[in-house]
Amino acid sequence: MSANVPMIELRKLTKAFGSKVALRGIDLRVAVGESLVIFGPNGAGKTTLIRILSSLSRPTGGSVHIGGLDLRTHADGIRRYLGVVSHAPLLYDSLTAEENLRFFGRLYSLPDPEPRVTALLERVGLAGRRADLVRTFSRGMVQRLAIARALLHDPAVLLLDEPDTGLDPQAAEMLHGLLAELSGRQTTSGDGLRRTIVTITHSLERGLAIADRVAILANGRLVYEAPAAGLTPAAFRPLYDQHCAAALRNAYQTRPGNRGGG
Amino acid sequence: MNFWRSVMAIVWKDIRAELRTKDIFSSMFVFALLAVIVFNFAFELRVPDMKMVAPGIIWVAVSFAGTLGLNRAFVIEQDKGSLAGLLLAPVDRSAIYFGKMLGNLLFMLVVEAILLPLVMIFFNLTLLTWQHLLVLGLGTFGFAAVGTIFSAIAVNTRAREVLLPILLFPVLVPVLVAGVKMTGALLDGETFSSLSNWLRLTLVYDVVFTGVAYLTFGYVVEE
Question: Which of residues 98-117 of A touch B (CB under 8 A)?
């Protein structure tokens, strides 16, 4: 892939569920190795965006290119590049931690998954529980295993949809340390490579800590995009509130029946 | 090669999970056993020859128990969003279909392997012949092929337990009728070659519906 080609490129992306429009013409480019954090209120279309990027949902209009490949025609090839962490852990309760990873390792055609499974379980702090059933794990442990599953095939792109949902502060801290490592900010125990990461989170503090660039998605539109350098949570909070409020006001005014109203 | 490796990984995963929970097997087997016992008592005193009703009893027990199993097959994929985990993997959607289908087929065959000797004892019949096993195997294959795709359709609906049999049984009529006719004919001592029309129907059904499911499964599981 040429250095000029962005890792992720969305052009006029739209998604509608019947009459409800979730995404309205999103244009977005994420460079190779960049960490983009998307903030937005509930119902803004963030999860829909991640589902489309991860090939779980088809867009209604527009195009998605990942690694220079069109998602419509090369979904199978693109999935090989993607690691996805969502609110749901995407794991099997009745398998052990290592069985889950071995199973997904086979699906990703890893030639020898065992060393990778062991290394990842150690990395997420679950080596001592590798033979335990996932159903016996706490929410934080399940989420750590979900992260190990997402990293199993060493993906070039990580898509993280509120990965810290339901985590206690300690587990959330561990997760964000791992993300900082993967995004190349800390290379002490990682491989030093920078993954392209798209994260969706409600936590301004944690989001800004791992972001190269931030965006705000509100009412299905990207209403703000800027480099994260120099942005502090205190400075970003008013910007966030202002853009979300403006998007909501705009949505209310353009709704049929409200036009011309106050 | 990767295709079949993925299929076998999914089958292995389902077997492993089932060995732990026994959710699918226990509900299927208990239902099938109860059905055979109830029919045995219901018909014992009123039917002069159990050969007359045994084919229907066998296929009702197998198909209803199979439906119970199919109901569970995709429910375990919904737990913790694991179906999405499968769909995120770089494998052909049809590999997921064949993995789930072979798992369902295997569970049904295990239940049948235990059920048949019990039917033989209750009804005093001989069923462990290669002809009976072939007929049962082909019918079960058709059932699993169609049932797996309908199970995937029904799993995202609100009333999936009710919806699955309503969708499934009208489509299963040809294979169930053929199964009952062939089992009855074999019990009546007819030669295997005399069943060629029913056998052909079952084979065509299996091939056609496996092909249709193979081609359409991707659309069923994608949003």
Answer: 99, 103-104, 106-109
Q: Given this structure, which CATH class describes domain A1-81+159-168+186-262?
A: alpha beta
Nearest Cβ partner of B90 from A57, A58, A79? A79
Q: Which of A86, A92, A98, A152 to mutate to test the interface with B (most CBs of B within 10 A)?
A: A92
> So what's the pLDDT on residue A190?
47
Rounded distance, CA A60 to CA A73, Å?
Answer: 15
Residues facing residue A215 across a β-bridge: A38, A225
Q: Write the pLDDT tens digit of every residue in A124-154.
A: 889 999 999 999 998 888 988 999 999 999 9
Helix (H) or strand (E) holding A39: strand A35-39
Mean pLDDT, to the nearest integer, of B71-92?
Answer: 86
**Sequence-ordered list of residues with C-beta below 8 angstroms from that of B3, at least 6 positions apart, any chain:** B91, B92, B94, B95
Average pLDDT, chain A: 87
ipTM passes above 0.85: yes
Rounded to a whole number, what is the distance in Å from the CA of A28 to chain B's nearest CA?
A: 22
A27 versus B78: which is more confidently predicted? Answer: A27
Domain ranges of chain B: 2-221
How many CA atoms lie less than 13 Å away from B62 in the CB half-sphere?
A: 34
Whether the Cβ atoms of residue B152 and residue B115 lie closer than 8 Å to each other: no
CB contact under 8 A, B89 and A82: no
From the list A194, A195, A211, A201, the residue with the least C-alpha distance to A165 is: A201
Contacts of residue B189, Cβ cutoff 8 Å, sequence gap at least 6: none
* CB half-sphere exposure, B190, CA atoms < 13 A: 14
pLDDT digits (tens, 9 = 90+) for A82-131: 999 988 889 999 999 999 999 999 999 998 899 999 999 998 889 999 99
β-bridge partners, A42: none
In 3D space, the residue among B74, B61, B118 whose CA is nearest the CA of residue B100 turns out to be B74
Smallest CA-to-CA distance from A123 within A76, A190, A220, A51 is with A190
The answer to whether the Cβ–Cβ distance between B84 and A89 falls below 8 Å is no
Q: What is the Cα–Cα distance from B179 to A21, expressed in whole angstroms?
A: 49
- Annotate A223-256 with DSSP letters as a single string: EEEEE-TT--HHHHHHHHHHHHHHHHHHHHHHST
- Extents of the domains making up chain A: 1-81+159-168+186-262, 85-154
State whether the Cα torsion A184-A187-A193-A195 is positive or negative: negative
**Distance between CA A164 and CA B13 in Å, rounded?**
28
**Exposure letters B28-60 (e unless 16+ CB within 10 A, then b):** bbebbbebbeebbeebeeeeeebbebbbbbbbb
What is the radius of gyration, based on Cα positions, of chain B? 18
